Amino acid sequence: MKKLFLLTSIALLLSSCVEKKGEAVKANLDIVPVPQTMIVNSIEDGFILNDNTVIVYNDEANQFNAEFLQSYLKNIFKKDLKTTLKSESESASINLNIIDASKCEEMGLANDKESYLLSVSIDNINIYALDAAGIFYGIQTLIQMMPNDIYSVDANEVAEVDIPCMNINDNPRFKYRGLMLDCSRTFFDVDFIKHLLNGLAHYKINNFHWHLADDQGWRIEIKHYPKLTELGAWRGADELLMPAYGSGNERYGGFYTQEEIKDIVQYAADRNINIIPEIDLPGHSKAVAVTYPETVCDIESKHLSVQGESNNVWCVGREENYEMLENIIAEMTTLFPSKIYHIGADEVNMNSWRDCDVCQNLMREKDMKELVELQNYFVRRVEKILAKHGKTMAGWDEILDGGELLPTSIPYVWQNSERGIKSVKAGQPTVMQVSQYMYFDMKQSPDERGLKWAAIIPLDSVYSFDPIGHFELTDAEKKLVLGPQGGLWTECGIVDGYAHYQLFPKVLVLSEIGWSAYENRDLNHFKKRLFDSHIEKLYHMDFDFRVAPPTVKYEDGKLIANKDYDQLVIRYTDDKSTPTTESKEYTDAITTDMPENYRFATFYKERSSIARGAQNIDLYHYQKPKTTITSNVPMEQDINVLVDYDMNTYCNTARPVESGDYFLYTFEEPIDCKKILVGTGHYGLAIVGLPNARLEYSYDGENFIEGDDFVYDYFDGYYAECHPEKAVKAVKIVVTGIGECEYAILQDLRIE
Ligand code: ACM
Ligand code: ZN
After folding, report:
1. Tens digit of pLDDT for each residue in 216-242?
2. Can you tell me the distance from the alpha carbon of 565 to that of 583, in angstroms, rounded to the nearest whole number?
3. Mean pLDDT of the region 129-134
4. How far is the CA of 692 from the centre of ligand 1 (A)?
């Protein structure tokens, strides 16, 4: 016994003699979202946070919070700090204090859920809040003050972090701050979702709107209807659902088991995130329609949705459909404690209902004049099922059409600002996910990937959005605005890293819009915090964020490149190749009379932006010979737009393509060229092209040489090239298998 005591004493003595590893570092005060008030009392004096600091919590509800903080601090101190419940006498401690609402006034704390007071003195750090959510947010703010690599187990060791004496008094502007992720078009696994939730929580976003069912996949296990996931979660050449959005002929998809969902919901709840499930009804339901075909109207429908799907709309008149929805929703309620359930209701092509006897009978019976009244009837039936389970219905802003709603139902505004005004004027609580600002699947500049039907949306534009200020509203109407939401649809998202690219750093903008006081918002100040600190934080959080590409122009014989922020390095090549970390660094304007040959990219550490050439010149000089085009396939638009050499004009087929279909481009005169690139699908988006096709070319217009099969490129879509040896008279696309959806988009030739 004595010996053991002696040994322990020596060990203690030794450990206190060993010099502390790492440096002393100063706290980082670049907080996102910017707090309501932050008063630094002294930069001289402060609290020294080190591995002797104890984390004390006064309420069992905070055990998770204490351990959460402990796990981050371990990354920099390489040791678990002690955590303890209700110890009164710890010196040098971080105290997590849940307080009674009666204390709010005296402490100057907003009497709101989620608000917190973070007070730093020489002796202690105190976080006060009314609930565990407020304590959690105080902790997130504290974590942001730590070194930027604290998020990684590989963080550099530090001896201490010196935090100035200060008070942060913080509370959210909006009680709803959401992000929507489409997991139907692209399937993201459990680890991806948890990693994302952790990032959202760090930036005080408290709702995750999980888009779980759409035309291209049903992703939630429902035991009552196993085919929904056995068959409806998969697409491919041999599946019931066709290939789509670049997933190719292979079986693509996946779903979340009920156990996985419970695990994710708990993971989110621990981090103060409510998960709102969405199953998109009555449109966007191809995955249901192919597995349980009786759910859709019993007609031969040629009515396509905006995305080109036919027969993807639930039959409104079929009574058994409501039983099925009752069964599905009943199972969902065992998984999702959320009060809000989202039922989609967007972009329904209602014409099927016009052709369906069952729907028409219902219209007559209920004396309905317009098809949209059927939509309202459907929505209200689902609203009623949800109400029976104590749930509030949410839907896209189309739920406002065709009739009334329960006053508690929540439209999510997406189409435009006017729909937001309509929603609050109808007295509905409203979430603002206005597409022109909050759709993170839109392009961020013209030559980046992404859609652009809503707008091209750079980060600055998102920052300019205000869920209230963008609308002319009375005070009563303003109160109906629950808050902002960002959304990522993933039609073009199956490319690795694309989701993070579109989400980050825009999620930080969303965070500030949702949390910070309007008066405290300042784009330049936001960018300074972002570039000085949070880009590096995101790097260590392992989010594959967008590196802002350089702006490049050619002027007076010189190429001039600029970057968004100092921490980036611009590199370039002069042979049209994509710059790498090994490429030459750009430091000054480049004098050249061959500007087309240069490509520039910015780098943050090893991560690169897209590459681009000068944006104000024609980089490619494509040839534009007079050409005629013919096909055996009926087209939706004038087929001649495919030979106008304008990549912005599209033409799509009026039916699904099949093996043997062709598209023949014939030049008036044979043309000499180095290369012809034949792309399909949306240019710059790589969707709705021809996964199964071959390129052929001919020198005489009669005898064709077999060229390459089409391959996938994340920007050009499914494409093939030929490199003719002499003047070419014609090129032909020969379809060899099924397409991506019920139509295919063709492009103009790019002839070099
Ligand atoms: C939507 O973008 N269809 C909600
Ligand atoms: Zn019907």
Report:
1. 999 999 999 999 999 999 999 999 999
2. 20
3. 96
4. 29
